[in-house]
Task: inverse folding
């Protein structure tokens, strides 16, 4: 029996200045899975993510998260829903003048009434979950790119959201560091039951972490594939999908 859906995207369209980025995009994300949004450069992956976390308003269609339509919510109701999702941006987006622990305490200070001692404890626990328990007092400039990505995930988990969105988590990382980050994502999904929505075009990561995926295409201005990425690699009859997974160049 399939797990319940925690995200539903229905006939979504994104348009800016009269230009259509994508349209008629529909899919569901199930509780506890690692769901990957993939595709080539310029296909709208990050634009789709920004719609899903409420930064952009749909030109058409809608997005339901945890049973609520995010585009219809306003004020306190919208903020309450947004506190139930966490986001890690491509750069990690850490505050450079704050330690890793202080970075993780920022959402706790903004959204909870926890005393300083409790916030510090939560920060230490979250850093431990991503393998950075010994780096709590280090500044972002003092850590590697891979550690910054892990710290970004820890901060995204600060409020215990059931859904985490990761934007290009493997970008800029060497293969070994990237594989370690992939293993961490799988471990967190398994151990915590967290649902992950991951935007990436890194083929090795897609195959390592993805339970299911959708593929966007710039020319089609929408979805061209949905399913288990390994099955798409092996059985898709779409030449664009095959070329992506097999790293082939399409003939002109």
Result:
């Amino acid at each position: 029996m399939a797990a319940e859906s925690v995200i539903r995207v229905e006939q979504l369209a994104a348009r800016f200045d009269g230009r259509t980025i994508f349209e008629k995009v529909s899919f569901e994300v199930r509780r506890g899975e690692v769901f990957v949004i993939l595709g080539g450069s310029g296909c709208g992956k990050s634009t789709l993510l920004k719609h899903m976390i409420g930064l952009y308003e749909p030109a058409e269609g809608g997005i339901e998260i945890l049973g609520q339509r995010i585009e219809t919510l306003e004020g306190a109701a919208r903020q309450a829903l947004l506190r139930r999702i966490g986001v890690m941006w491509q750069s990690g987006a850490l505050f450079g003048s704050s330690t890793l622990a202080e970075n993780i305490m920022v959402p706790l200070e903004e959204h909870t009434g926890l005393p300083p001692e409790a916030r510090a404890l939560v920060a230490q626990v979250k850093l431990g979950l991503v393998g950075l328990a010994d780096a709590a007092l280090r500044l972002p400039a003092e850590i590697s790119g891979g550690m910054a990505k892990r710290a970004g995930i820890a901060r995204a988990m600060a409020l215990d959201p059931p859904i985490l969105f990761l934007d290009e988590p493997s970008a800029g990382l060497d293969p070994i560091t990237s594989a370690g980050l992939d293993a961490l994502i799988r471990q967190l999904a398994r151990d915590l039951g967290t649902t992950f929505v991951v935007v990436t075009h890194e083929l090795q990561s897609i195959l390592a972490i993805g339970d299911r995926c959708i593929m966007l295409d710039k020319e089609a201005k929408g979805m061209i594939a949905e399913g288990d990425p390994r099955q798409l690699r092996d059985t898709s009859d779409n030449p664009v999908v095959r070329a992506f997974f097999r790293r082939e160049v399409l003939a002109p």
Q: What stands out?
A: Strands lie at 5-16, 19-30, 34-39, 60-65, 68-69, 85-88, 163-167, 195-199, 212-217, 222-227. The CA atoms of residues 70 and 81 lie 8 Å apart. The mean pLDDT is 93. The first strand starts at residue 5 and ends at 16.
